[in-house]
Design a protein that fits this description.
This protein is of the alpha+beta class. It has 6 helices and 10 strands, in the order αβββαβααββββββαα. It has a 6-stranded mixed beta sheet, with no helix packed on it. A 4-stranded antiparallel beta sheet has the order 3-2-1-4, with no helix packed on it. β6 and β7 (107-115) form a beta hairpin. The longest helix has 5 residues, at 51-55.
Length: 187
């Protein structure tokens, strides 16, 4: 089984009930162990007695009932709670909205877009984030420490002189006429 949770040892405890995506029938874990020589886990369910029954689960997503207030430590959030949050500077200026999240090593990085600074990556570390309250839809960052620069305007600068217009030569003056060939001598 490919694991998509950060805490498989907590999720795959004997007696835990999982559900096949879109199916209300329970699958109760009877045995679970991490694969010693590779990624993933081996799991046996009480309701699945045959190899054919197990093959039916191949490629299926299994879900568990999650209670955020009980399952997460204080100050922890699920990614779907962070995506869509407005990001503001400490001065109150709107910097954009969290569009995506990815992980580098042990740090999560938020992709922020839609503000005056264009798209930028925001590492989820205290050096940059002053207030982190995604359930309230609030993320406040120290924009100065991120060294953000406004994206260049697409509007033409009214103070900038226009470039001189280039003129093309007419085709007639640029084509050369081939030299006349002398008549062949009588032999």
């Amino acid at each position: 089984m490919e694991v998509l949770t950060d805490r498989p040892e907590d999720r795959f405890v004997v007696g835990t009930v999982l559900y096949r995506e879109g199916d209300e029938r329970p699958l109760t874990i009877a045995m679970a162990e991490a694969v010693a020589d590779g990624p993933g886990w081996r799991i046996r369910f009480r309701e699945v007695a045959t190899r054919e029954g197990a093959d039916d689960l191949r490629g299926a997503y299994l879900e568990s009932v999650v209670r955020p207030d009980e399952d997460l430590a204080r100050g922890s959030y699920y990614w779907h709670e962070v995506i869509g949050c407005t990001v503001r500077g400490v001065d109150g200026a709107e910097l954009g909205t969290v569009k995506d999240i990815y992980r580098i090593a042990e740090t999560e990085v938020f992709t922020v877009d839609g503000g005056a600074y264009g798209s930028f990556d925001l590492p989820a570390v205290r050096a940059f984030i002053r207030i982190f309250a995604p359930r309230r839809g609030e993320i406040v960052v120290d924009a100065e420490s991120l060294d953000l620069r406004p994206r260049p305007s697409r509007e033409p600068d009214p103070d900038r002189p226009k470039a001189p217009r280039r003129r093309t030569r007419s085709r007639a003056s640029t084509t050369a006429t081939p030299p006349e060939t002398p008549p062949a001598p009588d032999a």
